[in-house]
Structures
1.
Amino acid sequence: MSSVKVAVRVRPFNNREIGRECKCIIEMGGNTTVIANPKGPPGSKEDKKSFNFDYSYWSHNEDDPEFSSQSIVYKDIGEEMLEHSFEGYNVCIFAYGQTGAGKSYTMMGRQEEGQEGIIPQICKDLFKRIRDTSNAEIKYSVEVSYMEIYCERVRDLLNPKNKGNLRVREHPLLGPYVEDLSKLAVTSYEDIHDLIDEGNKARTVAATNMNETSSRSHAVFTIFFTQQRYDETTDLCTEKVSKISLVDLAGSERADSTGAKGTRLKEGANINKSLTTLGKVISALAEIASKNKKSKKADFIPYRDSVLTWLLRENLGGNSKTAMIAAISPADINYDETLSTLRYADRAKQIVCKAIVNEDANAKLIRELKEEIQKLRELLKQEGIEVHEGPDGKVVYEKREPTRAEEVTRNNKENNENHRMRTASTTIAEEAVDQLQASEKLIAELNETWEEKLKRTEAIRIQREAVFAEMGVAVKEDGITVGVFSPKRTPHLVNLNEDPSMSECLIYYIKDGATRVGSAEANLPQDVQLSGSHIKPEHCTFENKDGVITLTPMNGALIYVNGREVIEPIVLKTGSRVILGKNHVFRFNNPDAPREKRENSSPAEPVDWNYAQIELLEKQGVDLKAEMEKRLLNLEEQYRKEKETADQLFEEQRKCYEARIDALQKQVEEQSMTMSMYSSYTPEDFNNEDDIFVNPLFDAECNWSEREYELAATAWRKWKHHQFTSLRDDLWGNAIFLKEANAISVELKKKVQFQFTLLTDTLYSPLPVDLRPAIDYDTDDEGAPSKTVVAVEVQDTKNGATHYWSLDKLR
Ligand code: ADP
Ligand code: MG
């Protein structure tokens, strides 16, 4: 029993993080990883969280003495796991973490010296150890498979014949496995290297054509390592088998944080199915491990809920030595994802595996498979299906007409059975045939000799390379496998991909004369075959004339060169970015031509996928800007015209209103004359309610409802009572006295001025007793009206005093 080994690795800042001036929130010391919360108050409890792992790898900056290089990581984890596989254990290493955190870098790495990841290093070491073994009694054999799990479906990356999705099945003896997944025999590290390379090419082609990203798929590279030992003294052959599973998981970021919508979200959800199930499995296993061992409750581990966990079942808490590497970003902006990765890793630490040495596993399996096959054949015989070997050695299933005697016994047996039972027995028969076929396939595989395996592997390689050649993809960098061009001299397109591990792995040569680019559906065979969004059957041609390459687009084909849409033939300069359709991004290289000068960029800036995308956006953005400016001008022009018309209209309306104002003014003057006449009237003169409609202000025709008449009449009564009688009447009635008083004052040189004023009786300015209104307001009125009275303000300019008189006093 041993726990899962867990390591955490922090990578350097990427360009985006540098650009955004991110802070490093990860600290490491010994096996401990500490994460600081950029939002938490410094020094508080929420500020820092600390985790202990088997290893904490500081790969943030190379100059640090604590820096963990690819070889350090390999020495700790890879070497130990390889040792276990020599002992005969199954081993598994999987990389977990958000997209861009360094999973592929850790597992695969880059081709340059010192940059290779765990997978190539393990393979190299494996063959080195095999070579170094002097023991002639031991025979080694190595086979590999490479698959991708995308949307819960399995794709074979090494065999182009397995175009569709492979079936994941379960065998009672073998457990879950992928049917027909090719297991290829390899004899050297170079063989494996080529297979990985071609597998990655296949993955990239598929991903580009379908506009998928590898961040959503899981890549599983498996090495089947067998050691046969012949013991002379006993004359016995023993065998140890180890399965080495190396898994680069899909990005662990949550679907919502990637802004995934629609289909993408669905894909995310599907992939999350594998990842979330992995999470659930890990949690369940961790719980079991932490629980009291005597706990009787049979814990349910949801292995079956996803393809990934189902296939890796043994590696998760079963017969395996397992290690997990959690890749993390150092940047503060990724705090949430990083913390969740650390928690995940923390849980994985608790998982306990029970690895056993797989001794003579194959022999036992063959024996059991044979027994099973025998049983199944018998079962089928009872169902009237004969199984025998055809002339080509293939198994043939024949529905045999039952003999008379058999029919009698059958009929007797079935006498009491109904039809439903008979159908059930046919499905049983179908299942048995299916099972039998599967078992026979497995046993055939196990019985295959090494020479046969090598032959099959070679046949698949030829097929695979033929498929690449048909697509125009060079298989080896020297181009030898695909054609006669010499790569160092031949102009070519190299693919760029959002995922750095998929970038620059596909090379398309541009031969002398015309190189046609289109899809497989074209009538004319295309030299370079692409597919996916906006790729025409005949998309474009590259014409190579004495080393000068001209790109000619076909009618309506979507092509961008250096971010600009191309509709006419264009001569390509080396280093140019070429985008065909929506997803196919390339850099054009012409080794003989001088390098094209790039605008607005430092020579150090890599011409990668990001560069091409930003350029595309910028250039398309510039064009958009021009377009916007044009539209803006049009809009302004339109606005100007509209404004002119509006101004004109406004001027006319203004004149019209002025005329009406004049008319109204006249009316008001006439009215005020009438009103001054009214001032001599008493309220009683207005008793006839209809009178208001005689008022010249209301001479317009009015067709009010009865209710409106009523309302108007009520309003009139109130107004008459409170306003007209109390204030206006007072003013108009005493104006003459005021005028007279002022005249007298001037005449007598009294330097006293009289004017009307309104005084309100409030708490703060109570009216003098003599100014209090004489009449008491109707008590039935709502609330008492404010006691506002007309008074006379007497300004004594000589003494600088102001007095208030009542109207009575004025009189
Ligand atoms: P993932 O597979 O998790 O999405 P990658 O492995 O592709 O992420 O890493 C993203 C980028 O960061 C790549 O360009 C890779 O080369 C770089 N990178 C990741 N980890 C390291 C590291 N430890 N040292 C240097 N570069 C790294
Ligand atoms: Mg990756």
2.
Amino acid sequence: MKTIFICLFILLTQRSFGQSPLLKDQFSFPLGASMNPRLLQENEAYRHLATTEFNSVTAENHMKMMMVHPEANRFDFSKGDELLQFAKSNQKRMHGHTLVWHNQVPKWMNEFSGDAQAWEALLKNHVQEVAKHYQGQVSGWDVVNEAFLDDGSLRPSIWVKNIPDYIAKSFQWAHEADPNAILFYNDYGQDGKPQKMKAILDMVQDLQARHIPIHGLGLQMHINISSNNAEIQRVIQQSSSTGLIIHFSELDIAVNPKNDSTFVYNETAKEAQKQKFKFIFDAYAGIPKPQQYGITFWNIGDRDSWLRGYFKRPKEYPLLFDDAYAPKPAYFYLTNTRKNEK
Ligand code: 9MR
């Protein structure tokens, strides 16, 4: 009788689409997703996956400058705090994204005018207020995001224009505000862009030589099914040989990168995508354990992807869960095939 009850309990607690073990339980490193507070609140299927499948949370947008610092004298942490609360009450790690970026900058910052000292005061205040607000509650921060162009030059922005040494300063300020946070430099598309990769490595060397606290590199991993594996492997190798902690911070794998309107997401495309996810997870497993911060997907279901919304590519399916939040072949590969990864 007791056995029957136990079996019934197990059956009832399994998810409707099968007996898959959960994603987050398969790996020795944290497995995250970027999330959106509105979807968490409004969409039950989304919330269910967010709660059960992942153990690390990144705010897709709600800790960025524009969101948390809408006016010069006003911070608004309400939405970021909502995500933090979700992470906390579900025992998940919270990763901070992002303190300094050229994008999603509030209007008042873009329009600010002042001398070098005033600019420095502005950025220092932003970095430190945000880092202090979340001090001890986020495990790490993407301190500076996407500072380099493909040719390795510094990306033009209000930051580099007004505070030439803003990268080093931002890391220093963040460290002062939250001394225990793991501080990352985060960027995309280093594969196939050796000059961009070199610029990042040179920056790491320079910061380390100056005793500026940088602890990790975020490799965003916005890739596609045709991305060159050898190139990606090279980037991983070069990044991890710095000895820094490595985060695959924004993983998604586009299947229709040219936005072909006649594209059909057929079994062949799903299989190619599964193989690419396999490659990425294998490559990550090859990084020395102490340097593994985790893998974070850039949102949860295909319908939530920035490639659909921001990039307006309706026939794109870059994540593990489909438009109805059902798991796709890559999900089953990661949960069923990759046992004993721990
Ligand atoms: O996914 C984010 C999307 O909702 C925003 O509209 C967009 C604004 O630029 O930013 C997206 O997130 C980006 C992340 O913060 C940094 N790396 C690239 C991501 C995709 O654009």
